Amino acid sequence: MRAAVVVFPGSNCDRDVIHALRTTVSADTETLWYESSDLPKNIDLIVLPGGFSYGDYLRCGAMAARTPVMKAVRRFAEKGGLVLGICNGFQVLTESRLLPGAILANQSLTFICRSCTVRVERTDTPFTLGCRENQVLEMPIAHHEGLYFLPDEEISRLKKEKRVVFRYCGPDGELDDSHNPNGSLDNIAGIVNERGNVMGLMPHPERASEKILGSDDGALIWNSLHIWLEKGGR
Amino acid sequence: MDCKIFGLRKEEYETIKKQLGREPNEAELRILGVMWSEHCSYKSTRRLLRQFSSEGKQVLQGPGENAGIVDIGEGLAVAFKVESHNHPSAVSPYQGAATGVGGIIRDILAMGAWPVACMDGLFFGDPSKEKTAGLMQGVISGIGGYGNAVGVPTVGGKTVFDGCYDGNPLVNAFCAGLVRHDGIVRSNTAKPGQITVLLGSRTGRDGIAGAAFASARLEEDTKGSRPQVQIGDPFVEKLLIECCHELLSKGLIVSMQDMGAAGITSSASEIAAKSGRGVLIHAEKVPLREKGMNAWEIALSESQERMLLVIEPRYFDTVAECAGKWQLECAAIGEVTDDGRFRIMEKGKTLVDLPAEIVGGGCPEIHWPSIPLSESLTKDLTDTVEPEYPDEWGNHVLDLLSSPNLKERAWIYEQYDHMVQINTVVPPGGPVSVLRVKGSERLLAFTMESDPWSCGLDPFAGGAETFMKAARPLYVCGAQVLGMTDCLNYPSPEDPGNFWALEESVKGLATAASEMDCPVVSGNVSLYNESPAAKILPSPLVGLVGLLSRREEYLSCGSWNEGDKLFLVGPIKGSLASSLSKRLLCGLSSGRPFVFDAAKERSFRQKALETAHRSLASSGRVLAGGGLTVALAKECVLSKIGAKVDPECFMEAFEVFFSEGGPRALYAVPSGKEKEFRELWDSFGCAFIGSVSGERLRIDGFLDLDIDDLSVAWKG
Asked: Which of B62, B619, B675, B712 is least crowded, fewest Cβ atoms below 10 Å from its Cβ?
């Protein structure tokens, strides 16, 4: 796998993602500077990492969504390239309209950093094909703005199209308010676009990709991508 | 000239005249007024700080730099320091705390290290008061707001509540960074011909008035200077870290300094003095935020997120290009000279011309009178009034667990990103925070402690206990202690009783650290922590860095298994004097705190390390706040299993179960290891107290509680 991890000014999980990609699936990984309008050749995956792009002084991800690299990312996605946005990267994807919805401040109005459990809702995406249906993954969240929001009619469409990939849940997969850390609509933690090649999620798989960090469930996502690409992208 | 306006004492002014051989001009006086302030010069405490030993084969850098550095092997080292941001946080909790975090991160950056961990020592007043709640919220969101955005995890800390901090909250920020031995940057390497470059934010009028008029405020308000608070910008700090490391990796930096207190003046004069050189600053070359700033304002501005670099002039264009990439201001503002002078010129005119070494190091020490607080102290120490100890302990234990000083801290540390950089192996919340070092088997372990109540009763014993409270959990988890940093928080040294407590507690700290072979490599002093309402207890805070050679050496806590045998090692009793139990029952501390015994502590260290390294226990916890009972309760809650404890063997059961201090720990030992464990600890003191089983904590005759009730009380 050849992966590029975008670095915006203020990204702070870029090195973590690179470490996870290299240690779990030995991905050939490089960084991609936000000012680049061209992508490196033969890239399989672009990751928009977590952090505070542009300090998040405007709406989270709004500035980053308007950088030259995002034009290239859009073209890449339109051609079917795999794009993964984690945390701030998810916010950049919604701000770029590569994914629907808006990500608002947590219901608690505080930053929340803790381990969470999410349920895998779909296993036919490039990001989750190595997971079992309804498998519960332990991955941390760390955000102040993580409440996924969509207007009623759009959320029903999203659900109908089965584009919700992860939902916050209890340890046994139960979906209820007490296991929804940030007040996201319908416990949504991660979604894909219509084509299924662009995913955004709030939890950090790169923080849960090694046993020594408390969980290696996040490695399932890197492994899924690896398998998908090995199989020639289907 | 009235030197007091500039914050200088008459004798200090005379010293300046003598050293200069002339009258200083106004700009020079303003600069020396700031540089010779307590904050920058340590003039009241320099003599005391000499008691700290910084000797140790692992020490790569002792006090005197931006941070101390200890070797962790494999060519790697850890730079670390703690610094106070007390007054700014009292005035403006969010920005005060945020810029405290920003400042300490830049100190670590200045050593060439990559910041990997932050911790914070927070001291708040009575939490039931509305003012405290607001302050707390501001400070905690300030720390999170800055640390989270800058991408350095906040992995631990210490939070203390006591009425003495009403109006005098303390915010002590700690940072540690990783650096390769050959990547360490020092300030003594500048040579004539090299240039000084200002990198980062533009310079504004931030904080100048507060610093320059400190003395005037002193006249009105003897409680100390209240420097104006800066505004932090973690985004720029993040860019600064990235940019400095890109420059370091290309070998473009000779030396660098953080610009904290006294801005350009302190950073430039420090490089000049340490290198035995001079420095010339051209004020008009400094990029400014606002027009019309004069030279001394520029020299003393405390605008945040700036670094001063010393580079070879031929590299300037490359440096400027890198700064541009990271959207940072970059300007060559001066040069290193060989005349030993700190000079500021503006458009060709010399405005400041001082010997570099007197700017940072010329201030004479002040020896404040010291008088033992004998009367009140003796009364407190010999007070035999004991509270009525409850016969039934259940409610008392629940009260302890839910009291502000013991209550679980998830509501604080979950507001901090404690995982970014993916090194956090043991997250905050426990006695020790553990980080891995990528590419190595080694693990770093951190603790932060303070015991103001013991220091208030018997400052020497309290100082020693403060160190031990930080060190013992490291020993129990299996970590060697590599080094210490400290923040000495005290009220005004001008009161002889206060100064005595300062002297004695520093002596206690220094004695314990040196007896336990722990070098003190960095630190900070914060005096005048008092308001008209109250003055703080002597509140020295200790931060320790420990090392584990590999994961298998680590012994966790909260990891009991069914059938484990429980052992109390160490003295059967600690002291109730400053215990949380007594403070809760009587509303005060009185009596004699635990007396430091170096030989016992060393023996404890050896046995605790052996216990962890030989895997003789499934769980180990040092007895701290609330004593043995609270240790049992926490272990039950974390392990989600109960225990049956038989206290029959003990006389004075209350003291055994609730006293604090001294080398005492609770171990859970699997039955197969019991013999080896006993053989190791028997000579030290090792009492079998019960077994792990069931879903309740039962101490026969005294207490019988469901784990869920304990959990609710503690975690709320």
From this structure: B675
